[in-house]
Amino acid sequence: MIYVLFAIFAGITVTLQNSINGLMAPVVGAIGASFLSFTTQATLIFAYLTLIQHRLPSIRRARFPEALSGPLAMVVVGLIGVCVSRMGSAVTTCCSVAGQIIISAVIDHFGLFNAQIMRFKSSRIPGFILILVGVLSINLVGASDSARTPMPMLLLAILLGCCAVIVRTLNVKISDSVGSAIDGGFVTSFGGSLGGLLLFIALSGFHPNFSAYLTVPAYYYTAGVFGLICLLLNIFAYKKLDTFYATIFMLIGQIATGILIDLLFFHSLSFGKGLGILLIILGIVIDKLVTRNRAAA
Questions:
Q1: Confidence of residue 69 (pLDDT cuts 50, 70, 90)
Q2: SS3 letters for 202-263?
Q3: What pLDDT is stored for residue 100 in this prediction?
Q4: What φ, ψ does residue 61 adopt, rounded to 5°?
Q5: How far apart are CA 46 and CA 195, in angstroms?
């Protein structure tokens, strides 16, 4: 039961991180919000390793291609914040998870990143159709032209979900290279922080306004804390739970928190969005059931 709660709270914390970044983006920019999150994560991990474990992070064995996960994750987190600010947390989460399902199917079909080859089967088509209909429902059902979510934003959220899978895959490889998940997490967080800083400076025309961080509410600084908590909870949950159940329970935490945040902060959850969210969830569950049964066969 405790690991089920870990998975649910992992979903809650990642949604809180994305939502806070979405609130912070109008003040410091999407990249600026992501930079703050990763800097917080890297600082906390470094403090834990030096003060609790009395050692420095083990990063010497990190390989360059794998270390690109940090800058890539920084861009993904930053742009997800933009999607949240434009579409709301629940819709962004659903589209992101849909993208993760799609890219996972591609990776499995072609055996990318040394994954075991699992050819795409027609039994997965119903789940994918439901996901597609759900995305269309968000944009077309019960909304006026002015209230519709731009299709490019929906597609961007799906694309970011695809990139998130690649980031997680690289994170696993980094952890294997450096010898532990916490050291791998530091490599990713530090890379995201450094990449975010450089991009933040470049996008500002090399005149960054760091004083803008002093104008945001103090709780915005917890985005990185939530991101780190999600990372640790994911490690525990996926080690002890069946992948199917871990994913579903994490999705429950994400969607429930996303809907609550939409109602409290963004005040936007139309009938079309609610229907689309439901259809996407059904599509994801059906696809997970199909792939789980194939793996057990």
A1: confident
A2: HHCCCCCCHHHHHHCCHHHHHHHHHHHHHHHHHHHHHHHCCHHHHHHHHHHHHHHHHHHHHH
A3: 78
A4: -90, 5
A5: 18
